[in-house]
Amino acid sequence: MKTTDKSGSATSGTEIARVVRFSKTGGPEVLQIESLEIPAPASHEVRIRVKAIGLNRAESMWRSGNYIEAPVLPARLGYDASGIVDAVGSDVKHLKAGDEVGTIPAFSQNDYGVYGELILMPQHAVIKNPPLLAFEQVAAIWNPFITSYSALIDVAKLSAGEFVLIPAASSSVGLAAIQVANMVGAVPVAITRSGSKKQRLLAAGATYVIATEEEDIVAEVMKITNGKGAEVIFDPVGGPVFAKLLESLARGGQIFLYGALSDEVTPLPLIEVLNKIPVIRGHTVWDTTKDPERVEKARIFIFKGLAEGFLKPVIAKVFPFEQIVEAHRFLESNEQIGKIVVTI
């Protein structure tokens, strides 16, 4: 039921909607679709009728209990969604009911989650959609592009002619990093395990592709860079391969660790550290998304890239909402090239 609050802002009463939660950590099968009451938005919140959800590996780690914070059970999940504003709180001035919007990863999943038909979001995590993009495409842009932008452009200041190594290059963030690098004239070098993805990564914009099961990373990088090494490495994996990445770095180069997909110990070879004098950074997208000025700079960069054709969301597969468990199984298969999207 629609009502009006004392300030005159449009609001809605509580509604029942289907949402995804889990009551214990574990595999994809712990995800359950439940009917819950979704209240009217608080003064700083936006309520959104979701049309599409973009899945991230962070959410499978959260679901399995291996994320950087522990879920408070029963837990919701999800960062990326797009839909239509249903209602806004009294303090929300930049959005109104009927606006088409997307969400950015600017909150804890213990506070909010986007896996649902109707969701609440803090206003700072909601951005109007760029022109001409479908809901499915919007659900595939924000986490990949803002994560890549925040590390490569905002912090690393990646510039034309510099080499950037991109492990897990077939992931949605990896593909976004390739595009961001190309947008500024840098040279993206995709790192993948198997040569089976090589041609698709080249077609996606990688200048070079190195398959770690078939080629020596260090030898290939030194051949590509004429012995100098890469100026930037953008790594979501860690683990034993990190030593090879460090050896592939140019002296004084930067390594960004923005994930921990490997279950194995990440070594730190001290001789290489002394030789390379690297800058090794732990990086999370929240460094950017919780700063309104940096978010606006990211939005301008991403909108420009989309408008000029440098940035294009890559969707690997689309699942219906009712198949959220199957979607998470596919997410963990590592078979996909691009973003997995769930539609409602």
Ranges where pLDDT stays below 50 over 5 or more residues in a row are 1-11
Which fold name corresponds to the CATH topology of the largest domain?
Quinone Oxidoreductase, Chain A, domain 1
The quaternary structure here is: single chain
Give the beta-strand count. 17
Q: Number of helix segments?
A: 11
Percent helix range: 25-40%
Please, how many domains? 2
Shape: globular
CATH level-1 class of the largest domain: Alpha Beta
SSE order: EEEEEHEEEEHHEHEHEHEHEHEHHEHE
Distance, first to last CA: 22 Å
Quickly give the CATH architecture of the largest domain.
Alpha-Beta Complex
- How would you classify the helix and strand content by structural class? alpha/beta
Mean pLDDT: 94
Radius of gyration equals: 20 Å
Write out the CATH superfamily name of the largest domain.
Medium-chain alcohol dehydrogenases, catalytic domain
Major sheet summary line = 7 strands, mixed
Strand content: 25-35%
Characterize the structure shown.
The chain folds into two domains: about 1-140 and about 315-344, Alpha-Beta Complex (Quinone Oxidoreductase, Chain A, domain 1), CATH 3.90.180; about 145-285, Rossmann fold. Helix 3 (about 140-155) crosses helix 10 (about 290-310). Strands 5, 6, 7, 8, 9, 16 and 17 form a seven-stranded mixed sheet that branches. A six-stranded parallel sheet has the order 12-11-10-13-14-15, with helices on both faces. The longest helix has 17 residues, at about 290-310. The chain contains eleven helices and 17 strands. The chain is globular. It is α/β, with parallel strands linked by helices. Mean pLDDT is about 95; it is low at about 1-10.
